[in-house]
Amino acid sequence: MPNATPGSLVAFADAAPAPLAPWAPGRLLALLRSDPAVSIAGLALLLIAVAALLAPWIAPFDPALTLDVSAGAQPPSATHWLGTDQLSRDLLSRLLYGARISLGISLLAVTVAVIVGTAWGAVAGYAGGWVDTLMMHVVNAGLAIPRILLLLGIVALWGGLSMSSLVLLLGLTSWFGVSRFVRAEVRATRNRDFATAARATGGSPFRVLVRHVLPHALTPMLVAATLGVGQVIVIEAGLSFLGFGVAPPDVSWGTLIRDGRDVLGTAWWMSAFPGLALATTVLAVNVLHDRLRSALGGQQLHDP
Amino acid sequence: MTMPGRPAAGEPLLRVHNLRTYFHLGGALARAVDGVSFDIRAGETVGMVGESGCGKSVTALSLLRLVDPPGRIESGSRIEFEGRDLLSLDEEGIRQLRGNRIAMVFQEPMTALNPVFTIGDQVAEVARVHSDTSRKAAWERAVEMLNLVGIPDPRERAKSYPHQLSGGMRQRVLIAMALVMNPSLLIADEPTTALDVTIQAQILELLADLQQRLGLAVLLITHDLGVVAEVTSRVLVMYGGQIVERAPVRELFRNPRHPYTRGLLEAMPRLGRQRERLVVIPGTVPPPTRWPSGCRFRDRCAWQWHRCVDEPPPDYPVSDDHEARCHLVDEPSRINVVTAVDQHS
Asked: Does the structure show a pLDDT above 90 at A137?
């Protein structure tokens, strides 16, 4: 039986990248070329990601700088492309900095979720028997509780969250789906001939799992990760909107939407542009997820 | 017979006694291997034949303790290898033997190699599992092994992925993997079944050659008596999870005593013999959850009489090294009685 979960994480990290090599890039490239929706979604994400990365250099103003408080919220203009908020801060600059936080948090949280979910699912799938049953009951319990409710409960108990604990919290509540995908793939792969052959040459369960079985679970991991990014962005925005997520002076798309909530009638741009950015990103990620899922392996993985 | 210069060694390398591997399937009990005993001496090639479902592969997996639940090797079974009791070893102990002292070659060269690693990697991995070898030394060893099993241009080929090789080449790779650590016993489970006839012959030749050069003992599992005739010295015929006849290969071909063995021999297609149809053994192997009482072969046997229902046949000695588990050996006169009826029908 494979044992320690933390061990699997480490070894998985150095076993993972290589095995895709013989087949995946070609298929992924072909996919990108053949499907315009994928190209558009990919391009949109690329633009947003680059803008987020370069925010300090391309943002026209300091996002926290109050230019002229007495002027109040200004609509979009030549100087302020997306307008300003009530405190006369440049919305475009705030949106760019918010992208860093929103995307950064979701990518990190998904990384946490994929690592935990992969380890959990791999151990359950490889061990089988009662270990599997028990571990999957935990997963089903996790999936049964609405995530936003779970998060609100935890946040309410804990009070103010630092950015890193927010990442951890989001990651540790998002891995259930990943673990199911990975478990299914591991169960299917562990009894394939080459896995038995690896055992017959004296490979330890850990070695067989990490080297021979897990590389075949990369597809579901990739698919689950793209799905997760979209979900986590929305959840983070939801938490921030409710005032439990990112705390000032940091801004995320969720906090920007909230800032505009009370003045929707008079300053629509304050919530509309962050909302548009959020929707575009999530839509693009979900298109990629969907196409990736049907292109890689073609098996129908059910969204949790 | 394939081992001229080699002395008939003394102590058996492998001694299997009353091996029983059962699968506990909810309510049903599948007795896949049910009381199998045999020896293999060092450097000897033993053939194990029988149809699919006779328990050959489960026997092979049991020898390496690779049977997964719900399958289980029942207590009372004994497997001794190089003087050690395999069934009392812990997991770590048995793992050190697998691929090291006892190696296995599987039936399907198409699926027994991992598609995502190069063949050199996979051969080298065995060396790295069992010895403290550097990556480079293991790779060198892999190249050397690929050369040994007759893969042309091994240094270049080691960088190939399995899908870039033919079935025969892949089977050679699997043999190379099996032999990296110089095992003393090689279990080959239907190593040529998935290959076409010419390649089959090459692989068998390779096995026979390696066996002589390396002093390897081989347990060759097959359903093809033609293969057995070519490379083995002794044959075990399996039916219904048991060994029903055992004999030196010539003796078995000249004087088969179990009706199942006869059936297998007659079912062999032969060149130069005019026949309209291939002879087949009527019926199929019953599922291992429902072996018939008495003789397990009786429902498919032209000679069966009440004794076959009432009494499971013991291993009747035919000669020194020939045994058959059939009441006909005890009552040879029965053969004529029933054969006459059979010829009419």
From this structure: yes
